[in-house]
Design goal:
Structural class: mainly alpha
Helix content: 10-25%
Shape: globular
Order of helices and strands: HHH
Amino acid sequence: FIDNHDGPRFIALQSDRALSPTYINASRGIPIVYSGTEQAFTGSDGQVYYPYNCVPLWISGYSTSTPEHRFIK
């Protein structure tokens, strides 16, 4: 898997939003999508990574129109 709650999310470390879902689906093994990856959560406010890595989906305004969500779907 590419994201987890112990560090910055992949999308926070690079600028190309298409890389994360592409890697998840193209790498060997079973694709694992960590909660929030499909919402493009960065896990950061620019300086602090926690608790921004653990935002509950039900209070985040879950969107089905993010590029990541559409690609993974």
